[in-house]
Automatic annotation (TrEMBL):
Pfam families hit by this protein: POR
Protein name, per record: Pyruvate ferredoxin oxidoreductase
Any one GO MF annotation of this record: oxidoreductase activity, acting on the aldehyde or oxo group of donors
Keywords: Oxidoreductase, Pyruvate
TM helices/strands, residue ranges: none
Cleavable signal peptide: none
Domain of life: Bacteria
Source species of the chain: Parasulfuritortus cantonensis
Domain Pyruvate/ketoisovalerate oxidoreductase catalytic: 13-108
Keyword Oxidoreductase among record annotations: yes
Length: 164
């Protein structure tokens, strides 16, 4: 069986963790992969810990990323790095919130899409596929803002992690 890619998002309620994982799941499905997704809500809808697992590949049997097997950990809030760190495999990639320059976003609500842009720099999914998934999930009036946030995240990750 070919490799399954394991991605975990971590953050706080209200940051768009679940929206980001929904967009990722849509993008990988549009790219032709089997995808499974699960989520864990914290003690409150706004402000509590939230995480979401996305697994994709030719065939995915379970939605949960086993502890120590995440290929990528995307964290939207710095306080959530440590609690989510155990899911990351030893050679996995942590994408922390500071990968996005604090003054780079026109609207802080698009931070989750910027973090998707950062993740996209590592995945072999066409940029157009990502944008289609973003546009399918978010209101048309937000497309330009989120396209810019996605591009910022992609550029920032490439610079930070020395990706081509």
């Amino acid at each position: 069986m070919a490799k399954v890619t394991n991605i975990v998002f971590g953050g706080l309620g209200g940051q768009g963790v679940l929206t980001a994982s929904d967009i990722l799941a849509d993008a990988v499905a549009r790219a032709g992969f089997d995808v499974k997704k699960s989520e864990l809500h914290g003690m409150s809808q706004r402000g509590g810990s939230v995480s979401s697992d996305v697994r994709y590949g030719p065939t995915v049997l379970s939605p949960m990323v086993p502890v120590g097997e995440a290929d990528y950990l995307v964290v939207l809030e710095a306080t959530q790095v440590e609690p989510n760190q155990p899911v990351l495999r030893p050679d996995g990639i942590l994408i922390p919130p500071d990968v996005i320059p604090p003054d780079g976003l026109k609207n802080k609500k698009s931070f989750n899409v910027a973090m998707l842009g950062a993740l996209s720099a590592f995945l072999d999914i066409p940029e157009a596929t990502w944008l289609d998934a973003i546009h399918a999930r978010l209101a048309a009036k937000l497309h330009r803002l989120n396209d810019e946030a996605f591009a910022l995240g992609r550029k920032s990750a490439r610079a930070r992690f020395n990706l081509s």
